[in-house]
Amino acid sequence: MLHPQHKLRFRFARTGTMALAFSYLRMSRPEQIKGDSLRRQLEASREYAIKHGLTLNETMQDIGVSAFRGKNRTEGTLAAFLDLIRDGDIPSGSVLLVENLDRLSREQVSTALALFLSIIDAGVSIVTLSDGQVYSKAEVDRDFTKLLMSIVYMARAHDESAMKSARLVESWKAKRARAQADPRAKLTGCVPGWLTLNKARTEFRVREDRAAIVCRLFEECASGIGSRMSARRLNDENVTPFGRAKGWRNTSIRQILTNEAVIGRFQPGVMKDGVRVPEGPPIEGYFPAIVPEALFFRAQKAMTGRRKGSAGQDRGTCANLFRGLVRCAYCGGPMYYHTSGGLPEGQGWLQCDIARRRVRKDGELVCSHIKTYPYEMLERHVLACLPDIDISQMLDFENQATAALREEHGQVEARLDSALAKQKRLVAMAEEVEPGDGDEVDDALAGRIAELRSEIRSLRARRKELEGRLQSTGAAVVNGEHELMMAALEHMQRLDEIDDRSERYRARASFAQDLKRFIERIDINEAFADVIPHGGEGIALILDAKAFAGMMEGNQA
Fold first, then answer.
1. What digits encode the pLDDT tens for the residues 23-51?
2. Which residues are 143's β-sheet partners?
3. CA dihedral 388, 393, 399, 401 (to 10 degrees)
4. Pick from 103, 49, 108: which is nearest to 77 by CA?
5. pTM beyond 0.90
6. Start and end of every Recombinase domain (predicted)?
7. Which residue among 76, 148, 271, 533 is least packed, with the fewest CB closer than 10 Å?
8. Can you tell me the distance from the alpha carbon of 362 to that of 338, in angstroms, rounded to the nearest whole number?
């Protein structure tokens, strides 16, 4: 919808004594504004207004908005203008100036005609500047051939756009077929920031300096460093970003980390209401792979792990080692980490995020556990109990063959998570498809969903097979894993000796990632924290001795 400021401009125009004219400019692609069209249309509007003694309003512009899909009618400045007409804020006798009727609409004739009639029935005339035609209720009622001519123009505009759309769809289908058959065939000159396309458009070339940055981002992500911190470090090191941005942002880094082009995969797609929808299976090997698949899926798994159950502040310091692990024992919600009064690193507080935000369901509070707990105490207790965790119950750190199986199992799980997420998005899109959106969109969505379901079945079968093979192998060398954990713990305990803030962050982030291999979750109740290892028995750590004593007395009673 139009910004409220523009509505005020429309109303302000009414203060004049002359009739009002509104110049409406629409271009379907933003790059069209670079040509002479904008100046030409504005100039024609001004000349018409002067010639007919009209007060001209030039605020109506829809640049990069499609009239074929009706975006200008539902979301653009034209939509706001129609709202003002319905509200009575555009006086009868006003004039809407357009270059041609196709500037108003390229939708199907019935829809375009309804739009056309709604404007002139409100007493607003439509003038097409290219031929000087005036369409008003009085003119159309007097001479019905004007209405017939307008319908002809509308039909032609829609047919032209429909034909262009169909040709574009067929063109891309042909390109995708060539790309599937011939890896050298390139669909477009638009490439990821770490690649270039040669002049013959037959080969992608890797920009090694940028590829190194991408690999570094994946390594950092897999080791527990978040995209916000990675962006800050790149900016501190004055590393030039790939695009036109003036610095690295966590959003641009997440786009890189989730882009399957780094492992050579390209997903063809079609546009639906301005959103790119996958069409057909991904093309493997389309791009040069610059990141090992194992690293890519480790990074995906790390990002998923950080998203699950995370809440609260952690401003690039990795102050909270238990992000994504610590939960409220009463409602299962994440514990919110926050600091107050500028406390040093590690000296924050934990509180149930659901209770803190007073989340309600059916009018009732979901959780009333509002008690806060000193984070530093929890960290100290958890680190102290790590040597007591029986690793043999949860890990079988075996020979290289089993390690390879475990690596593949992790990749399969990450790919399965990704496929399930894609399927969920596509099903949601399919439910929003309306009649008339086009059979090609419906078919594309249905086909891709079917392919994903097949892929999900295969991945689940492979995961089950790998789990069976891992289970049959049995635990062989537990001590090696235990020694690695103890070495990491010893390093953590010597962090006070490290002056470099960046190195301290890296060490804590890496250790936090390692903790997730050992600890499934940490449940906090009124009195204690229950540290639950993967497949092992929980270890109770008392956080509030008085509350714990009260709980024990209550149990005895």
1. 998 876 554 555 567 788 888 899 999 99
2. none
3. -140
4. 103
5. no
6. 191-309
7. 148
8. 29
